[in-house]
Request: fold
Amino acid sequence: MSVKSTIVGASVNAPASAPNCAGPGSYVSAGYNQTDISPAQCGFSAATDSVALTLLGPLQDNGGPVPTHALLTGSKAIDAIPLSACTDQSPSPAPVTVDARGVTRGLDGACDIGAFEYAPVAVTISATSSATTLAVGQQTTLTFIASNNGPAPAVNPTLTLVANNLTLLSDTPTQGTCGTAGGPSVICYLGVIAAGASVKVTVPAQATPGALNVTGTVQTNEPNLTQSRAAVLTIGGPPSSSPSPTPGPGHQVPPTAATRPSISHVTQSHRTWQRGNTLASLAKHRPPVGTTFSFVLNGSATVSLVFTRQRPGRDVHNQCLAPTKKNRHHPVCQRIAVAGSLKSLAHAGINMIVFDGRLSRSTALAPGRYRLLITASNSAGHAAGAPLTFTIVK
Reply:
């Protein structure tokens, strides 16, 4: 078998004596092959063959008709083939112009080894509201459009909506799935956005007292092409009422109403960490365990930490449901699952929550990638901070 422009490595269930290219038959190199051990084992002896660590993502839908392994940043397979050698093995070699996904080869002057051409994505986001001003209780329709202006598909980007003084009533994406609305925030997984394509998410929202705004953030989650873009939409409120007259002698001043909470400067000390055994608690005078989430409040409030993760599901009538025996033959989709939540009282100023993965004494988050949304609430309303993404490792 003649082999050209192929990555051979990270083999599974292969004998130790021949971890790559095991089995009957032999291979002849037509050049520009890459292995993670000696090329001689596969019969790769061309001057352009190479040995390098296989920096590959998982086999998954990266756009196109077949699953592929994405080339990760730093891979020696990137730009390893001159344009003049980016050809097939026909008797009269013809240029190979696209990869397995349909992405154009050689955009930066050279081709990559393997089925995946490393190319940037360029996501953008726009936001509009059907109403320019809202009184308390009135509704508007928010529209967010995430677009991919790059040459390669954007794989599984997320759209996070965080509103102040707006209740997000529902959400309808043109593709992908969104989490349950009904509060100040929602997360949508948008699937694969092809180059030049876009996804629209429509969200009816209702105004509550206070300044009205919502931030939509679209983020790609590919291991080598993480990118984030945000759009802030501000909606005007009704004209302010005239100030109340100063009460005269003998009149009692009514108690001051609670101030709607504001949460900002949401950060974490570590994005990747190991799980421990300590319960989450407000930090005092001890070093962080696992990671430490910090945020700033404008006053005392109850804070909720909601942890979500992307899980496989089955598409049943355009709804991504948890897999069951009944729906096992339906198409595969990605759904948003709530992995757990925590609540705590917090104070005005900087708060820090030490967290090592435990939700209770008997429950802990499993290793994996998560998204955290912190919200604050009191008698005057609620607000949400910017989401955080982190990974728990074994």
About this structure: The chain has three domains: 1-119, 123-235, 263-393. DSSP finds no helices and 32 strands in the chain.
